[in-house]
Amino acid sequence: MNKLLSRLITATVVMVMFIPLNLQAQDTLLVPHIVDNSPVGALNATIVGDTTSTGEQAHSVYQLENDKIYLMNAILITDYDLNLVGEAPDPSDAASKP
Q1: What are the structural domain ranges in the chain?
Q2: pLDDT band at 79 (very low <50, low <70, confident <90, very high)
Q3: Does the first or last residue of the chain, that is N or C, have fewer Cβ atoms within 10 Å of its Cβ?
């Protein structure tokens, strides 16, 4: 009985650890640094335009590309949590940068 309980607890902990990673991946949108052939306002346009058919925000996490500049054309005011994250660095680029 004790072994079964231990295995059940271990399985539960493992599931709890991996579920948030999967949910975040589905809730993350990669933001392009150019929209409509212009870098100005790409971040704003992507976030403001990211809505469902009911008008609710479709994603809660927005991932920015490495080595790109995002020019904003307005202040973003939201009534929801806005999370910006950076793209994971490319290990092959580390050798070429100081």
Answers
A1: 26-87
A2: confident
A3: C
